[in-house]
Design a protein that fits this description.
Number of strands of chain A: 12
Largest sheet of chain A: 6 strands, parallel
Number of domains of chain A: 3
Shape of chain A: elongated
Strand content of chain A: 5-15%
Distance between the termini of chain A: 75 Å
Oligomer: homodimer
Order of helices and strands of chain A: HHHHEHEHEHEEHEHHEHEHEHEHEE
CATH architecture of the largest domain in chain A: 3-Layer(aba) Sandwich
CATH topology of the largest domain in chain A: Rossmann fold
Chain lengths: 348, 348
DNA sequence: TGACTTTATTTGATCGATCAAACTTTTCTT
DNA sequence: AAGAAAAGTTTGATCGATCAAATAAAGTCA
């Protein structure tokens, strides 16, 4: 025994066979108690650690999940995915799963990577983020029978209930509905919304949350509501511009809700009246400047992803399709309320 | 051939032996050109992909590097490590290396993970972040002959030139020196510095950059300089407090430099005089609010790390110790100057 | 007790690739 | 052109674990 100890070494030391050692590690139940203890002692004694690659070669599974690390975009909202990655890694670790990162320049390139990692038995499955309508990646994975779970629901028409597409998502509707309610309960009537142009899966959901809550209360007529809504692309300066426009055209404002923290930060900058502003994503920026925000609860998302991936359907996408356990999780976000602290700022 | 094609399948198809196929992939030089083409055609034809785990079992190397994903701290500065991770993954991918994530609850736990991943042939080496004085991790890795590179120089007394400790770091001194110079060139004389308590490896470096630049110019006496310096722990509100204190006790302020973007953001909040504030890390927050900041150039850091890891010394830490190629890289950061945009804000 | 299960353990084969050494072909010497 | 050296290719063994099937031990029942 020159290098690290192997099963054979342990078997020899414990006076049993290789297979028994293997059984102690993988199916302890079928080994008699006293034998098991002897083997466990030998394992400890020799400091034995199973050779992961050898095991993978034989079992054809790697206990590793692959996830693509998206390129950094603006940075503010990008941190949500980073936080998700943290949560995922932490929880995967706790289950003995490893997380392998990779990058890709396009969806097609990403598919190439899927193939490479899957064929090499590098990973057992994938976690996808940033899904979009007509996403070729999910189609390819399904066609090739590779396990995966998406963070983000499928936005295609009839994909939502595709039994082969497991997904976890955050209920943006509920998030904005709650945020709107919170402002209403605090006495606000005229609550504006700065959102993204349609069609945008997530954006439309969030907008609807605000819209429904407003309509339910009925404080504002439908026509007035239209004046309280502004559509713009994401970004801090866009938020500032939108807020300026609202102040000029929307009449009195009791509160402003935004589709993202970037927009919210921008809105705060042009907010001398100190109207309460609420963002979305609860990014570090929101925490730093004391901005209320809707928190996506990445921990719960990560838990859901792993649950689906390793659960009844997870080992293999095609496993046990007859069961009727739900194939997705819709997480309700949490509203984080912060004092309207060191803000507002003045436009120079 | 039921499953995926193997070397044997390719060999059969190309009319050569397994080993020749293997040679085509690993040492193309020793295979005759026409044979090689035939094999390559067969590989393409069959869509053959080598089985990563099998290869690892045999070669005892994995082409994978492990990196611990630090727990999220405050979030603002934490994004530097996330950006580094992005850069590392991207560049590792380009070199055919994979990045495996893991988490740990303490340095000792991290060492346990090192052992597990190393023994299982899961990784060839590690990238460490957030090193500190007397770090047990580097000692353990050196003692066990495991390859690693740290992002962050060793802070122990005589470790800096330890030939077994490869490291890459950003020259904080140069960063603050340049930032100070930039303000001086713009006409500023009385430049304050908000930093961290000593001893702090990185913090002390940065402070010294400011201090040296101030002394070189000689606009301010040493006693006055002491009044222009404030020491505090990191955080947005600490930055606000420090700025308030400076305004009360330090006399006229022409500019303020901070050890972090968190402090800088805080400083800006208590900055009605619109004194130029410069942060450190060039985080998304700095970009969003239009704050000048020192950029750590994570791309260069990542390149340096990979270079050291895969280079002459990288394959094995103990490899070729007789060469005199430098065993570390000191990256010069870049000052990112931004207009003092939508800020300042007023304290309510 | 002896035949018959059930439970526990062992043996031989295998996963897919590469290493090391043997072997064959080509190229170089003189 | 014969013999030596170099280049190219093939064969058998091996990495460390698990699977599948065979064997041994323990427990059950008439």
């Amino acid at each position: 025994m020159s290098g690290l100890p192997t099963v054979t070494d342990v078997a020899l030391a414990a006076g049993v066979s290789r297979q028994t050692v293997s059984n102690v590690m993988n199916s302890p139940g079928i080994v008699r108690a006293d034998t098991r203890e002897r083997v466990e002692a030998a394992i400890k004694e020799l400091g034995y650690r199973p050779h992961a690659s050898a095991r993978r070669l034989r079992t054809r599974r790697s206990s590793t999940i692959g996830i693509r690390l998206d390129p950094m975009i603006d940075g503010i909202s990008g941190s949500v995915l980073d936080r998700f990655l943290h949560a995922l890694t932490e929880q995967a670790d706790a289950q003995g799963l490893r997380v392998l990162l990779f990058t890709a320049t396009s969806p097609d390139d990403e598919i190439t990577q899927f193939q490479r990692l899957n064929d090499g038995a590098d990973v057992d499955g994938f976690v996808l983020t940033s899904t979009f309508a007509g996403d070729p990646r999910t189609q390819w994975l399904i066609a090739n029978g590779i396990s995966f779970v998406t963070f983000g629901r499928p936005w295609g028409d009839d994909d939502l209930n595709d039994p082969q597409h497991l997904w976890v998502d955050v209920d943006g509707w509920a998030g904005l509905h709650e945020a709107t309610r919170a402002q209403q309960d605090a006495g606000a009537r005229r609550i504006a919304y700065i959102g993204w142009p349609s069609p945008s899966g997530t954006g439309d959901e969030r907008r609807r949350g605000w819209y429904d809550a407003m309509m339910e209360r009925g404080d504002v007529s439908a026509e007035e509501l239209a004046r309280l809504e502004i559509v713009t692309t994401d970004g801090v300066s866009q938020g500032t511009a939108a807020m300026t426009e609202l102040r000029q055209n929307a009449g009195r404002l009791d509160a402003v809700l935004c589709a993202s923290d970037s927009l919210a930060l921008g809105a705060m900058i042009a907010n001398p009246g100190r109207v309460p502003v609420t963002g979305y994503d609860n990014t570090p920026v929101a925490a730093a400047v004391g901005l209320s925000s809707v928190d996506q609860a990445v921990d719960e998302v990560a838990a859901g992803v792993l649950d689906l991936l390793t659960g009844e359907f997870g080992g293999r996408v095609h496993g046990a399709p007859e069961s009727d356990e739900p194939r997705h999780r819709l997480i309700t976000p949490r509203l984080v309320v912060r004092e309207f602290a060191a803000i507002p700022m003045d436009v120079p």
